[in-house]
Amino acid sequence: MLLRPHPILSIQFDEPDVALPIGLAEMHSKLRRFARGLGVISESCRVDITSTSDQRFQQIDDYAFTNDPARDLYGPCPSSHAIIKILKLARQCHQEGHSEASWNCRVHTAILDLALYIDEYLDQVDFLNCTTAQIQPESLIQSVHGGKPGESKMIDFVIYIERNKIMLEAMRTMAMRNPNPVDIPSVNHTWHAPLQTRPISINIETKRTGEGWDTAMVQSAIWVAAQFTKLEQLVTGLDGDVGTIPFLPIIVIQGYDWYFLAASCGEDGETYIWGRVCFGSTETPLGVYQITAAIQYLAYWTKTVYRPWFIKTALGINEETT
What we know:
Helix content is 39%, strand content 17%. The strands form two sheets. A seven-stranded mixed sheet has the order 1-9-8-7-6-5-4, with helices on both faces.
């Protein structure tokens, strides 16, 4: 993808003499801590964990627990009973050679629901299985040399901002400004019906254990590059500054293992893919606590950082009205 007019480039988080985009250094640092198992479980959950008869929970060390109010701010820790269910489903999928679709339905959906279907994010942040969503219109797909359209890619899940009445009204106004009546109005880079009015904040691509990392990277990169193009259109349509477009978190799952990456857009149209950090695994109890802590942290970022930016800069809504 280096030879595209607007190339997609891979870069490491710890690349020497390279500054991370605003806010990404903090997110990377937080997820690195979660990856080491530090402070992923609220102290309030200690009794539940120590009282369970499942021997696997005895391997969780004291450093995993925290009294930091921020952990509870991101959302409650799941119960040991819920963790055991996730471990059972993941082991079945791994040992019995389940398909990617089965992993998605049985394990990944269950853990995303466990992390996000909580009071802190109800009617504000949610997720969707979107394996049939395509990049639309095709003009959002970066062309290859000679002006030929590039290949469209799809992903598996997204975490999104839930719409409200004020946002919907702004979206209707945006649709009326659309110069191409053939295009279906959408705030995203897809016409997939559930996502036309729900801004995507985090993209998730899944593969089976040990399979398809390079493919996952290509799918995620092309998908998120189209998302940046759509965001540029929304921002410039309001005479805004495209330089304010933030980085976008990406999650890649390979079987048990969950990885954090991020994408940012360069000044000359490049898309940078930053990576990677393995922040948890559905193979162990601690790993599931790590994943839920990370997902809730990213949902909190969606709610407190990305949502305010999007409604103001991409939709033109005064923050005080929401």
